[in-house]
# Entry
Amino acid sequence: MADGTHVRFGVLANAWKETVRDAMADIAGNLASAKVEVRRAIFRRRGDPAERRRMLTALKADRWAGDPFLARQMRKHWKRGRNRTHDQIVVRSDKHNIVADGRGRLWLAVPGLERRRMVRIPLSTTVAPAGTLRLILRGGRVEVHYQIDASQMRSSQRPCGDRTIGVDKGYTEALIDSDGGHHGSRLGQLLSSESDRLKERNRRRAKLRSIANTAAGRGDHAKAHRIKANNLGTVKRDRQAARHRATVRTEIFTAVHRVVDKAATVVAEDLTRSFAGRKTLGKNMNRRLAGWTKGVTAEALRNVSERRGSALVHVNAAYTSQACHRCGRLGRRNGDRLHCTSCGVVWQADVNAAINILHRAGDPDIALHTPHHRVKQILRDRTDRHRTRLPVQDSSPATAERRANHPNRSAMSTLGSRRQP
Ligand SMILES: [Zn+2]
# Structure
C-alpha cells in the first residue's frame, strides 16, 4: 500500500488489502496441500529412515528445490491455484454494518467505490452475518459468506459415544459401520439421479449449441446470440449444482454424526489419499461424483470428530474389502457379498470391510503406510501359519484385549452366518 499499487485497481484501499490477504492465504493453502502429497510420496519410497527424515526436514523448511526427488514431486503436486478475486471481495468486520428496516428486513451496508457512500444489500435471512465477510457475486445475486464458531453450533454440543467403531465408505450409502449399521442410505440415489439428470441436460445443451453454431455459420448472429443468452446460460445450472452439493453434504454429515453418536474413536481409511497418478477420471460423471463425495466424507469425518471430541484414526485399508474378517483369507467378491470358502460363510461385503478396518487399528504388522503388496504378503503369512498349526498372531495380548473391547465382532459373525444362502 505504501507504493500506491492499490490505486491501479480502482477499489478502496482496505478492500484491496483484505482481498490480497485472502489470495495470499489461498496460495499458502495450495502449497501446504501439495506438501501433504509429497510427504506421502516420501513415505512410499523404500529407503533408509535417515534419508527419509532428511527429505521431510527439507520439505518442511521449503528447501525442496535442491533435491531432485523433492523438486520433481513438488512440480508434480503443486498445481496451479485458482484465483477467486474476479467475482468476490473480502470486507473487514469493522467496515460493514447491518440495519433492520421497518418490516424487520436486514440490510447489509458495505463500502462502495465512492468514499463514504455505502452500498446496501437486502438479506434474505434474519440472521445477521458477523466478522469478516466474503461477498461473492454469483448469477446476479450477492452471496455473503462468513465464519461461525463451530463450538457454538448446536451439533457441536452433542457428546460423542464411548466405543471404537470402524467405518467403510459404501457405494450406495455414505458409511457402513462395524456393527453392521448403514448411514446416509440416500446417497447412492442422490448421486445416480443427479448423474442421469446431468447426462440428459448436457445432451440437450450440446444440441442447442450446435444449432447456435450452425446459425452463426449461416450469418444469423442474432439467433446464435439469442440461444446463447436464453438457453445456454449458467445461472440456473450453477444454482441447481449448488443445491445438489448442499443436499449431498447434509446426507454425508448426518451419516458421520450417527456414527459419532456411539463412537469415541472412529477408525477409517484415509479418504484424502488420492490415486490420481494411477488412473485419470476423464469424463465419467459417476466416477467424478464419487471422487468428490469421497472428499466430502473425509472432510465430514475430520470436522465432526473435531467438533464433538471423538478421535479419528486413519488406517491402511489395503485388502480390507477382500479379506474375510474371521480367518483373514481373501474371499470371493460377488456384488455386495463376500464369500469365504475357508469359513464357508457369506458376509455382507461392506460390513466385513468395516470390521477389517476396525481391526487394522492396533494391527502389529500393518501400519498406515505399509505398501499394498506387503499387506498381501502379511495376510498370506498369517493364514499359512494357520494352515501349519503354528501359534497364531491373534493370541497376542493386544489382540485379545481388542477383542474384549469389541464384542460386536461375534455379534457380526452370527449376523453374517444367518445371511448365508
Ligand atoms: Zn473366513
About this structure: Residues 324, 326-327, 329, 340, 342-343 surround zinc ion (CB under 6 Å). The longest strand covers residues 163-169. The chain has a mean pLDDT of 85. The chain is about 45% helix and 15% strand.
